[in-house]
Amino acid sequence: MQHRPYDAATMNEAFYERNGESSFLASELTRGPWDPGAQHAGPPSALLGREIEELVGSDEFQVGRVVVEILRPVPIGEVRVESRVLRPGKRVQLVEASLSNDDGELMRATAWLLRRTEVEMPEEVSRPDDPPPGPEQGQAPKFFATGQSVGYHTAMEWKAVAGAFLEPGPATVWMRMRHPLVAGEEPTPLQRALIAADVGNGISAVLDWRSYVFINVDLTVHFERMPEGEWVCVDAVTRPQPSGIGTAESELSDQRGRIGRAAQSLLIAQR
Asked: Which residues pair with 236 in a beta bridge?
């Protein structure tokens, strides 16, 4: 896949800078809210998506599902990505991408690539669901204190149309990137979706973050179609259990309507 140049005013401020053929240097924009030295899972998930797109080779294929395994925290620093085709095919392909540093593998993603074909079906079946209220109807939500002035929370633009970080319960939040994923490149629809999809457990928390941790060990995203435009909406709900295990489920949309769904497995514990 050929990456289009990105000429926005912020092109020199990106989540990642290229540092060789398969190496990238993460900026402070990737910083997550819990550890000032670790990345939020959204940017490296999008970077794995970028690597997956390198294997597509044809616009006739679309990513149908991505599973990201978060093997350990990803430090803010140099990371390497590599990929391979696990199952080639004319109609479906299974591919894998890996993100690592000198200490070993940090995250891994597998994706099914599905060939797009024109299929006649009734309009009432194929009509997209109505989108949630648009970002122009939302408000910038307040964040819990991260102790850092720069990070993922400032690198993304947020518009909440229901719920918020400081309000327990389900939430519906629009997001768009303020910066390119990789310096000098225009983000692709897949990258825009993956960088946002990992926030479900954060925006829809039902437990007080000051008393509990709710860490996701994975991210699974099913795509019915790729998003259009810059905004991606995450409509999320978290369901914790007394066993210390839970899930966060999100419906993903663009301004035209639903594009798919995301799910996270949660490890829950008292601080």
From this structure: 171, 250
Number of Cα atoms under 13 Å in the Cβ half of residue 179: 24
pLDDT of residue 7: 41
Sign for the pseudo-dihedral over CA of 17, 40, 63, 161: negative
**Computed from CA positions of residues 4, 10, 15, 16, in that sequence, does the dihedral angle turn out positive or negative?**
positive
| Residue 57: predicted pLDDT | 66
pLDDT in tens, 144-199: 777 888 999 999 999 999 998 888 999 999 999 999 999 999 999 999 999 999 99
Least confident of 84-93, 123-132, 256-265: 123-132
Bridge partners of residue 158, in order along the sequence: 175
pLDDT tens string 68-108: 999 999 999 999 999 999 999 999 999 999 999 999 999 99
Where do the domains of the chain lie, and which CATH numbers do they carry? 16-116+130-270 (2.40.160.210)
Helix H, strand E, coil C: the string for the chain is CCCCECCCCCCCCCCEEECCCCEEEECHHHECCCCCCEECCHHHHHHHHHHHHHHHCCCCEEEEEEEEEECCCCECCEEEEEEEEEECCCCEEEEEEEEEECCEEEEEEEEEEEECCCCCCCHHHHCCCCCCCCHHHCECCCCCCCCCCCCHHHHEEEEEEEEECCEEEEEEEEEEECCCCECCECCCHHHHHHHHHCCHHHHCCCCCCCCEEEEECEEEEEECCCCCCCCEEEEEEEEECCCCEEEEEEEEEECCEEEEEEEEEEEEEEC
Judge if pTM exceeds 0.90: yes
Q: State how far the Cα of 105 lies from the Cα of 206, in Å rounded to an integer.
A: 32
